[in-house]
Amino acid sequence: MGKIKLLQGNEACAEGALYAGCTFFGGYPITPSTEVAEFMARRLPQIGGAFLQMEDEIAAMAAVIGGSLAGSKALTATSGPGFSLKQENMGFAMLTEIPCVIVNVMRGGPSTGVPTGPGQSDIMQCKWGTHGDHPVICLTPAYVQEIFTETVRAFNLSEKYRTPVIIAFDEIVGHMRERIEIPDPGVLPVVNRTKPTCPPSEYLPYDDSKGDVPPMANFFEGYRYHVTGLNHGTDGFPVNASPRIHTDELRLIRKVEGNKKDIVKFEEYQLADAEVAIFAYGVSGRSAKTAVEAARKEGIKAGLFRPLTIWPFPEEQVAALSKRVKAIIVPELSLGQIIFEVDRCSKGRCGIEGIYRVDGDPITPAQILAKVKEVK
Amino acid sequence: MAFNYDQYIRGGKLPHIWCPGCTYGIVFKSLLRVVDTLKLNRDDIALVSGIGCASRLPGYVDFNTLHTTHGRALGFATGIKMAKPDKHVLVVSGDGDATAIGGNHFIHACRRNIDITVLVFNNYIYGMTGGQYSPTTPLGHMATTMPYGNIDPSFNIPELAKGAGASFVARGTAYHAAGLDRLIVEAIQHKGLSVVEIINACPTTHGRRNKFKSPTDQLLWMKDTFLPAVAFEKLPPEKTAGKLPMGVLYKKEGLPEYCETYYGLVERLKKQKEGRAQER
Lengths: 376, 280
What we know:
- The complex is a heterodimer of chains A (about 375) and B (about 280).
- Chain A is of the alpha/beta class and about 375 residues long.
- Chain A has 13 helices and 16 strands.
- Chain A has helices at about 10-20, 35-45, 55-70, 80-95, 125-130, 145-160, 170-175, 245-255, 260-265, 280-295, 315-325, 340-345, 365-375, and strands at about 5-10, 20-25, 50-55, 75-80, 100-110, 115-120, 135-140, 165-170, 175-180, 225-230, 265-270, 275-280, 300-305, 310, 325-330, 350-355.
- In chain A, strands 2, 3, 4, 5, 6, 7, 8 and 14 form an 8-stranded mixed beta sheet that branches. Chain A has a 5-stranded mixed beta sheet with strand order 11-13-12-15-16, sandwiched between helices. A two-stranded antiparallel sheet of chain A has the order 1-9.
- Chain A starts with a strand and ends with a helix.
- The mean pLDDT of chain B is about 95.
- The radius of gyration of chain B is 20 Å and the shape is globular.
- Chain B is about 40% helix and about 15% strand.
- Chain B has a single domain, classed as Rossmann fold.
- An 8-stranded mixed beta sheet of chain B has the order 2-1-3-4-6-5-8-7, sandwiched between helices.
- The chains are: A alpha/beta (about 375), B alpha/beta (about 280).
- The interface of A and B includes residues 55 and 72 of A.
């Protein structure tokens, strides 16, 4: 039995990071994510880790990448406008394959929008926010306990696949307090980056001959190498030529898309005999679960597919679902974003209905139930 | 015996990208001599850069090297230094990289007084993109984005660094290469944020459009323009017109260094915790 606590989602995220071995935080204050930074500011000096409040979100992202390259597991947390500012350096970490975890506590609206309200309208930005083709892993927990375990998983995936991992949850889950159990050390697996075993003279930081994830040396460990945001060869030095750029970018994508079995995680609730499915994540997933329960009470065969990994998208699962249900309902706190992915994977095999809301309030179970009745 | 630069240069990585007449090679060699003079262990050096001609320097040298995004080198460097405070973290940056897009990071690194050495290669222009005006381009100078002459006032980099809180500020030039070695040595030895502005020449995108007939003219301009700070200060104002001081321009020892302060706090918390454990 671990420790039982009453925690806010943001605090559970910070606890999860510490559990995973995070010893570095770089951030900048922004609502509604600031509690993650405040928690880390209190705890990291206690355990000898590094906490930095930087001059802006861009520098915070840069510091996190620097901290990781120097050997620390590193975290940053932000929200909408800050997430936009971090994008360039996130792309740098993707191309240079430096692990780190970025939390986006999603609020509403473009621009300053609704800082204190929930949103799910950054979900496409999570996938496409930085320029160029790039691999993305993005997790979408919906419960305080889940934020803890998914934060541990985020660090594990980041270290395992040598890539940044985004955790995107909404303001409601971030600020909600729930009972959680923090497992004793050793209960949840903790993954550390694979380091090279070859002599430094033979080390190639981007050598993909033995697999899509090359071992990573930290700075100052005798493996002096070059890291650049330019497309590079296996030795890390700029390459401006065919076919290396093409094959290496394909490898980066394959690193994630080729390991979907390991990365994609979801909850299926009452789906086995469902005629109407709801595809929802985060706070909308919570409302959807209540709606499914209410529908079942009325004898309606409704079920929930709740992704905990939104990127890479659970394509096979949604495709399979579309073959056996009459319709998939997609409630989201946006004006319609993830519905396009559901639609893409369903290929017209079932009806697709969206429920959109961007007024700072969550989608209610009643709203979803009404839609279920409409399409059943 | 001639200095062996090869020992620090990565095999097969030369020739460098810099144009004929560019003075960056002079600074590059100075940096290598300094690392040798200080007997720094190359495994313990992180050399970080942003984007631009100067920022391509790290690729050539056999240290831990990091070529980042435009203007952000100091953010990355700060992360590295905080994670590994006992290592040597050096930043090379250009005038645009450090004071335009990276201006915010530059002033805040100075304010924090974190033990990083920043070498700002000031060639008064955006060279890599072909000669657009930068925050240090002199008034009236021609640039591709100031085709009628620059109207944008300049930063004085040492004054900016000093005002922002850097505890060591120096200025050297590619012409005064021997003096430059001494400045970089002192900057690295200094505990705290040290800035060395290094005056450079970009004949390709700046000099030839601004009445410097050859790269040599730009070096001679440095020779005529920059006076040792001690001599500069003794001159009456009418004799300093058009001249600028070089050397160590500002130095303050004993100011709290950021990592020392932070890890001092870590130690204090550790002792408090041990104290509380004993009381129980």
